[in-house]
Amino acid sequence: MNNWYDEIRVKTEPVFQEIINHGFIKDLMAGTLSKDAFGFYVNQDTLYLAEYTKVLSQVGIKCYEAEETQFYLESATGIIEVEKALHQVFLDKKYVDKEVSPTCELYVSYMARIVNNYSVEVGLAAVLPCFSIYKEVGDYMIAHQSNKDSNPYQTWIDTYAGEEFAASVAEAIKITNKYAATASPENLKLMEEVFLKTSKMEWMFWDSAYKQEKWAV
């Protein structure tokens, strides 16, 4: 399979459409998203990324080539630096909360389980939507905005629509495609399953922020 990503991307188009039509994304693009919803999101994103960087490091270590390992380790480090800068701009102290939301807990725990218990190609598929979907969402918002000069969230949008992030996404896709090309039928099935699930969890993450999700009990 030479281009696994293109094939799986077609299958996740309904999920992507649900994402770009979600109230959180539409309000973010319009610049009308409430400060409370965005503050909740940025705080949970901070907690999510603290674990995602560990997962990226783990999947990188399982890669066969030194350059691939280096890419994922550098991606983990780069995420920390970029997000730290964004969070300094957007994370007001009043929104800082160390309690992980149910959706955030589900997402990071699921990825950690997959990366720790399955083959490298399955782990690569699990972590990829956080790369690819953010780029597509950033590109979509930039293409459909009419308020780039006045949107209070423009710095966030520009980060994920930028060339540097696009290059990282392209590399992650390239590596995943390489491993998919030699994966067994069983692992290809698992790759599709986990990619679909983590794509849906991207939608869930934004939905949880829009609702400012709390533990029920």
Automatic annotation (TrEMBL):
Family of the protein in this entry: Belongs to the TenA family.
Domain of life: Bacteria
Protein name: Aminopyrimidine aminohydrolase
GO cellular component term of the entry, any: cytosol
Reactions performed catalytically: 4-amino-5-aminomethyl-2-methylpyrimidine + H2O = 4-amino-5-hydroxymethyl-2-methylpyrimidine + NH4(+); thiamine + H2O = 5-(2-hydroxyethyl)-4-methylthiazole + 4-amino-5-hydroxymethyl-2-methylpyrimidine + H(+)
Thiaminase-2/PQQC domain location: 12-211
Protein purpose: Catalyzes an amino-pyrimidine hydrolysis reaction at the C5' of the pyrimidine moiety of thiamine compounds, a reaction that is part of a thiamine salvage pathway.
Pathway recorded for this protein: Cofactor biosynthesis; thiamine diphosphate biosynthesis
Keyword Hydrolase annotated: yes
Keywords associated with the record: Hydrolase, Thiamine biosynthesis
Enzyme Commission number(s) of this protein: 3.5.99.2
GO BP annotation list: thiamine biosynthetic process; thiamine diphosphate biosynthetic process
